[in-house]
């Protein structure tokens, strides 16, 4: 698994230090944090995104652990999650290059390069005007079902996203989007965790995050129940009976997230 090089990078970087090659890529910087850089670049006329992790340092690791957060040490989480999602036929990014070096978790150097998904629009942007300009009911229903199926399959395969919001589902727009034919891809997996089985705690956090992200797009109670029914693969009666505590917890958690966002703004 380490390193992984597919074309065009396998040929372009043959016999070279692939970390030097990755660091020399240029393009539009989307995010620049201490220890992590994300940019869009073009190679042979095709778009790619590269995330470079240069180590977060022990201070950042301890700060995350004290806050009961798992630190992001490198690109491995994203690479593993992409491969596992592809194995279960959940549409996501395509990795073209990945490597890591160093055993010290505070200084680990790694990167991942994925193909640009374009043309696309995030579901957050696509659904933004739904409260004032409702979509075709059949299309809305189809999108809800697809998201529920994707998240359910992801969790059943032992993967939890940790940033499970509708902004991280991209709707492909290279062809006309209809209820009968559309494609959704889940992205931004650098915080994703992969296990044999998704712990209930992390499953529930994903579901609460997803619910929080759709609070303002005008979904009806029937829409929300359709998601739950599809996600659990049960009848509506059985879903409401078996998952009553979870549904109440998700509502409460999402409300708290919304209040926190309104109070402090920015990321959660």
Tally of alpha and pi helices: 10
CATH architecture field of the largest domain: Orthogonal Bundle
How are strands sequenced across the largest beta sheet? Answer: 1-5-6-4-3-2
Fourth-tier CATH superfamily name of the largest domain: Transferase(Phosphotransferase) domain 1
Assign an overall shape.
Answer: globular
- The sequence of SSEs as H and E is EHHEEEHHEEEHHEEEEHHHH
Mean pLDDT: 91
The CA-CA distance between the termini, in Å, is 33 Å
- List how many beta strands DSSP finds: 11
When the domains are counted, the total is 2
Here the CATH topology of the largest domain equals: Transferase(Phosphotransferase), domain 1
Biggest sheet descriptor: 6 strands, antiparallel
**Structural class of the helices, strands and pairings?**
alpha+beta
Relative strand content: 15-25%
- Approximately how much helix is present in the residues? 40-55%
| Uncertain runs | none
- The top-level CATH class of the largest domain is Mainly Alpha
Radius of gyration: 20 Å
């Amino acid at each position: 698994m380490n390193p992984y090089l597919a074309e065009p990078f396998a040929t372009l970087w043959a016999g070279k230090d692939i970390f030097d090659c990755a660091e020399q890529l240029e393009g539009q910087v989307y995010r620049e944090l201490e220890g992590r850089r994300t940019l869009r670049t073009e190679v042979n006329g095709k778009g790619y995104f590269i995330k470079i992790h240069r180590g977060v340092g022990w201070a950042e690791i301890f700060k995350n652990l004290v806050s009961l957060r798992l630190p992001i040490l490198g690109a491995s989480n994203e690479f593993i999650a992409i491969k596992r999602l592809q194995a279960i036929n959940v549409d996501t990014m395509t990795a073209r290059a990945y490597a890591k070096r160093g055993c010290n978790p505070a200084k680990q150097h790694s990167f991942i390069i994925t193909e640009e998904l374009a043309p696309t629009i995030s579901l957050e942007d696509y659904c933004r005007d739904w409260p004032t300009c409702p979509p075709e009911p059949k299309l809305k229903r189809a999108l809800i079902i697809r998201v529920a199926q994707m998240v359910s399959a992801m969790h059943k395969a032992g993967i939890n996203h940790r940033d499970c919001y509708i902004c991280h589902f991209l709707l492909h727009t290279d062809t006309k989007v209809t209820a009968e034919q559309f494609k959704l891809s889940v992205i931004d997996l650098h915080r994703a965790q992969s296990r044999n089985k998704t712990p209930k705690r992390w499953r529930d956090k994903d579901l609460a995050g997803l619910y929080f992200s759709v609070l303002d797009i005008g979904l009806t109670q029937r829409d929300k129940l359709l998601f739950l029914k599809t996600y659990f693969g049960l009848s509506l009666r059985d879903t409401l009976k078996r998952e009553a505590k979870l549904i109440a917890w998700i509502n409460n958690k999402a409300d708290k997230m919304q209040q926190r966002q309104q109070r402090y703004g920015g990321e959660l």
